[in-house]
Amino acid sequence: MAETDMDDLIEIIEKEGSLEDIPLTLPMMPVRDVVIFTDMLLPLFVGREKSIKAVEKAMAKDRYLFLCAQKDSEVENPKASDVYEMGTVGRVQKMLKLPDGRIKALVQGITKAQIKRFIKKKASFEVEIALVKDLELEEVTIETEALMRNVRESSEKILALRGELSGDVGLILEHIESPGKLADLVAANLRLKVEDAQILLETSDTVKRLTKVNDLLARELELSTVQARIQTDVKDEISKSQRDYFLREQVKAIHRELGEGEDRFAEVEDYKVKLKKAKLPPDSLEEAFKQLRRLEQMHSDSSEASIIRTYLDCIVELPWNRSTKDFLDIEKSAQLLDKNHYGLDKVKDRILEYLSVRKLNPGLKGQIICFAGPPGVGKTSLGQAIAKAMKRKFIRISLGGIRDEAEIRGHRRTYIGAMPGRILQGLRQCKVNNPVFMLDEIDKLGNDFRGDPSSALLEALDPEQNTEFSDHYLNMPFDLSKVLFILTANMTDTIPSALLDRMEVIRIPGYTREEKQTIATTHLFPRQLKENGLGRRHITISSGALAAVISEYTLEAGLRELERKLGAICRKIARKIAEGQKGKYAIKKQSLTTFLGPPTYVDELDQEESQVGLVTGLAWTEVGGEPLYIEVALCHGKGELSVTGQIGDVMQESARAALTFTKANMERFGIKKEAFEEKDIHIHVPAGAIPKDGPSAGIAMATALISAFTGRVVRNQVAMTGEISLRGRVLPIGGLKEKALGALRVGIKKIIIPEKNRKDLFDMPKSVKKKIEFFCVKELDQVLDIAFEPRQIPQPGKETDGVTEAQ
């Protein structure tokens, strides 16, 4: 193996001997990564066995050998096709054997030669050569002289940029008068590719060779200039880094003298690493580093430093770019929903539709879903099921009773104890930016002098705005568009219209008794057995007992109280078993009083018989539907109207409208005019301790008034719901299913509803429609025909005294 030592000075020396003394058959030594030019002196490290033999043969004879470049330096055993035919005859000036077996030989290029024949021998390579002479110029022209001067100047500039220029080199370049020798010397010192150097060696025309060298010098000069500039920039940067390092060390020394220690600097570096890993947007990152620089300049024990640390902790812990991958298998999601929730087909269909759209369009902006329904019907568990189906994290916060806007949007950092709002706190807790985020009890938000929290939610819940949600504490935009917000409410009436407009409301009605019994059998009772350490071998409950628990011990649209009652039974059985009373307990209807005491609710109407001036209306409350009794009594007075029973403004207006309709049609109903002038009218809605309001008691009040004035008896098995206009039209209402369930619970068989609510019967459970007969009416006359006991309504002119005395 032969390698060049480029650090040694390559120089021109006088040739020993003459060309006639050179044999035409010489040992050949291939060299790698270098082309040997004439008059070139350089050391070679020889390692390959055949090359060592070639040098030894040359030293044993006349010291001549043929040097040629390899085409591929990776080849270890080159053949004739692996070397260039044009090479240089060299003379070994010195040879030194090294301890590792290699040879260091000092070789001088004598003249160019070309291989005529390749002689292969076992010990070494030998070749038959022909000497090649360059075409020397008869005289140096002005153009050639200018070319030589340009070559000298370019060479000196390159050597100066490399830091290799010395006075000797400059003198040598200046005193070389032969264009060929100048071209060879410069080519030998240029860092050329083997292919380019070989082309120069094979160019016999001196002017052409010098021109090629000049072109190569121009390219090398440009490269050396760029390299020198890069090195200068790097050196300057290193110098700046070193200066900064020394300054930081001095600052550390000063702080050590002040007793602040090393922890503070480690803390700053730790924040830098965490901020870079958090992948904040550029503007936010700049603000964070600004606060970090402020922290670096403060005393570690100052109160402001503590505030900045808390702020930076919040920034680095927020999930700026961390999210979970959605799992959108519609079939498995449907199975999961069916497993955990009985019934609620429309709700589950809507959830599966959302997941399907999400699967087809992953870039869909987060929709806002609001589950509205009574307590205990499964609103929260549905949100958890969605998160489980999508394999997202689930976070829930309750908004009930929140009155301060800062609870949603955060406090400004100028206040002591400031912190982010509930939304960012939730994201910080779950550590991903695309959870299923449930905002519970949205209808319980309040407002006062501290602001309106519902207004603060508008930005967070608007898909067009929440890509840059601004929290007062964070004071930089945060992207909420990947969050799936799910809201829950018992009633939508109290939700501000601007907020309600941003969400899709999915109503979850209460459960029928049959649905409750099925859910209790398949879910609630097994769960209570497990929670109380029991099994089917310890306790069974009959269907009759379960039905009795539902009807006599609970009065709700949901399932919470039912589960509590089943838990109470299981706890009493667990105590008996723990006390050593063995055996299997079978819970029958007759034994319920032993475990739960006497029945809490009587499953029957409060009015045992039909009466005058008493009508059963239907109300829809946060806990479901229930009967609403309207009582009217007439007593001597001056025709004044009083309404009691904690009635709200809407119901009071309904009462006045019902009275006005009755007065306007008194002749048709056979009521004397004096009845309104001589009698006070008292409308009462028990129980008086419970506030009541809403627009659905109008026809019940009108029916009760007409009954009281005419003496007509109202059927106690008929309930009604609907608003009334001054012209007697029956107007639509809401919450029909819940009201029907409440009526069924107390044994009502017939319900009068507005004609425009006929469409709601489509979603009414079949079990309800089998037990209740619904009457759809448009006018109050139709209501009276159904509600009153059979008796002919007096015709105009056949007046009665129309007075029912108060009892």
Automatic annotation (TrEMBL):
It holds the Pfam family AAA. One of its GO terms (biological process) is protein quality control for misfolded or incompletely synthesized proteins. Residues 609-790 form the Lon proteolytic domain. Keywords: ATP-binding, Cytoplasm, Hydrolase, Nucleotide-binding, Protease, Serine protease, Stress response. CDD domains: RecA-like_Lon. GO terms for molecular function: ATP binding; ATP hydrolysis activity; ATP-dependent peptidase activity; sequence-specific DNA binding; serine-type endopeptidase activity. ATP binds at residues 373-380. SUPFAM superfamilies: P-loop containing nucleoside triphosphate hydrolases, PUA domain-like, Ribosomal protein S5 domain 2-like. The active site is at residues 696, 739. It comes from the Bacteria. It is found in: Cytoplasm. It is an enzyme of class 3 (hydrolase). SMART domains: AAA, LON. Its EC number is 3.4.21.53. NCBIfam families: lon. HAMAP family: lon_bact. PANTHER family: ATP DEPENDENT LON PROTEASE FAMILY MEMBER. This is Lon protease. It comes from Desulforapulum autotrophicum (strain ATCC 43914 / DSM 3382 / VKM B-1955 / HRM2).
